[in-house]
Prior knowledge:
single chain, alpha/beta, Cytidine Deaminase, domain 2, two-stranded parallel ribbon, 8 strands, 23% helix, 36% strand, globular
Amino acid sequence: xxxxxxxxxxxxxxxxxxxxxxxxxxxxxxxxxxxxxxxxxxxxxxxxxxxxxxxxxxxxxxxxxxxxxxxxxxxxxxxxxxxxxxxxxxxxxxxxxxxxxxxxxxxxxxxxxxxxxxxxxxxxxxxxxxxxxxxxx
Length: 137
């Protein structure tokens, strides 16, 4: 797999970082829709995991509603995002085990840095992951 550069508009980056900052003790999560490969809308979804401080699980009803809204807007699923309140921005074993959209990107926001939020992009498939270069527009 070639490492193509992924571009995220500043507006979406700001939305993701803001969500993570206002929920520092539990993982935030959601979807990003795109048009022609360009990220367009952020769809925050409630994390219903039993241990939301350690993992994420998208609320199924909200996920279906977000996917429906994407279809209405002629968007494709671009990425699934979540945060790590106290771990680095790399996929955990749980993230890898639960990844069920091999064509989507996975964006991880880490709050485990000293005053700087970290945002990284991955492809997760076949029980492994690879990082893609991320450019913030």
